[in-house]
Specification:
The protein has two domains: 184 residues, P-loop containing nucleotide triphosphate hydrolases (Rossmann fold), CATH 3.40.50.300; 172 residues, Nucleotidyltransferase, domain 5 (2-Layer Sandwich). Helix content is 33%, strand content 20%. The protein contains 13 helices and 15 strands. The longest helix has 19 residues. 38% of the residues are buried.
Length: 404
């Protein structure tokens, strides 16, 4: 049983059933077990364990060094997944791997993609495709070489990064995609590593890509950019001189209703805004979301609740005061569209005047999409805009009265 992969593997590490796929794309976070999945798949097809025996296999890495150190001799590489009596012969000088039954793999570097001209294969394992220097050229050469057997296929194991080739593969009808996170394989990873890496990166854009295996892309038409948010993210904030809780209330309640956007932002003594918390909720009745707002107001020792009253009118203040009659409340009325209101706040981010203290994945997803895209209301973003406007922009639209 020690060498029976099907007894140990997670479902996402086992190949798709059937023969209707041409590419099996395994998107995974760092340490998620994707390399082990690729190595076990090559072992199985070389032995004919999962159908037709593959006699000619291509092994492709970003570089020759990575092919040897990770895909072949690594702790999860090809040699490690074989027992002593079935281990193939690896000849580094020839860049070949030969099994006792005659199956053979040739090792290639994506940097030297012309090396794929000439050979032909019935299977290929491509590792870390998102790191390939000449990804399109190497992939094209491989497609011409995958021409043996009844159903030549490729397995791609990679941590995703925004790239056109990966997008095309995801959209290809011949691609089966499975996903795995670093957390899914945590029992095989060092506990101090997991603790440190999660504390530092969980919820960040880099963490969602490198740990969660998510393909993170900015919408080119969005006002806010993930890289900009990431570059100004902090773990702690300076002393604050003012704190507001901003609210974008929903028109109704229930699962189909919009969320009640609730965002807390503080104004530092340095004059910058610090996003402290996204406490938005969905599906709650007014009394419930009002209680959530008041609880956050007191927990953060906020100076004021700022709430949009376009949809709820006086009802918003009323339900809040039914929970706590002494809160400081300011009603705001939207006279412009959501995008127009968000543009000055986006400019403040570009000027380096706003930092997120911690990570707020759902809020940041709304920020980095086109406002109103797909009919969705950016309720969290609306609340954020009202909060930052109250702290940094209010004086521009509410000039001080000059006493003569």
């Amino acid at each position: 049983m020690l060498w029976d992969w099907t007894a140990w593997a997670r479902l996402d590490q086992l190949p798709p059933k059937g023969d209707q796929w041409r590419q099996w794309l395994i998107l995974g976070g760092r340490g998620s077990g994707k390399t082990r999945s690729g190595a076990e798949w090559v072992k199985a097809i070389a032995h004919g364990e999962w159908g037709e025996t593959a006699k000619h296999i291509a092994i492709i890495a970003p570089t020759h060094a990575e092919a040897r150190l990770v895909m072949i001799e690594g702790q999860s590489g090809l040699l490690s997944v074989h027992g002593q009596d079935e281990r193939p012969l690896y000849e580094p000088s020839k860049r070949t791997i030969t099994w006792p039954n005659g199956s053979k793999a040739q090792v290639f570097s994506a940097e030297d993609y012309d090396g794929l001209r000439g050979p032909q294969f019935d299977a290929a394992w491509c590792d870390e495709l998102a790191k390939w220097k000449h990804a399109d050229q190497a992939w094209d050469m491989l497609q011409f070489a995958l021409r043996l057997g009844e159903n030549p296929v490729a397995v791609i194991t990679t941590t995703p990064r925004p790239m056109a080739l990966l997008q095309r593969l995801l959209a290809d009808a011949g691609t089966i995609t499975t996903r795995a996170t670093t957390l899914a394989n945590r029992k095989n990873l060092a506990k101090p590593f997991m603790k440190a890496i999660l504390e530092r990166y969980q919820g960040t854009r880099l963490g969602r890509q490198e740990l969660g295996g998510e393909l993170m892309e900015d919408n080119p038409d969005a006002l806010f950019k993930r890289d900009l948010i990431e570059s100004q993210r902090l773990r702690e904030h300076p002393e604050l001189q003012r704190i507001v809780v901003a609210v974008d209330p929903p028109a109704g309640h229930g699962k189909a209703s919009n969320a009640c956007g609730i965002v807390c932002v503080g104004l530092g003594i340095d004059g910058r805004a610090y996003v402290l918390e996204d406490a938005s909720v969905q599906g709650l009745r007014p009394a419930k979301w009002a209680a959530q707002i008041v609880a956050l107001y007191h927990a953060r020792k906020a100076d004021r609740v700022v709430a949009e009253i376009n949809q709820g009118g006086a009802m918003v203040e009323q339900v809040l005061r039914e929970v706590d009659d002494e809160i400081s409340f300011r009603a705001v009325h939207a006279s412009r569209g959501k995008k127009a209101r968000a543009e000055p706040v986006a400019a403040l981010y570009e000027q380096g005047k706003v930092s997120h203290v911690g990570t707020f994945a759902e809020l940041e997803d709304e920020m980095c999409n086109v406002i109103g895209e797909g009919g969705k209301s950016p309720d969290r973003l609306d609340a954020l805009v009202w909060a930052i406007a109250d702290l940094l922009l209010k004086r521009r639209v509410e000039p001080r009265v000059r006493v003569v």
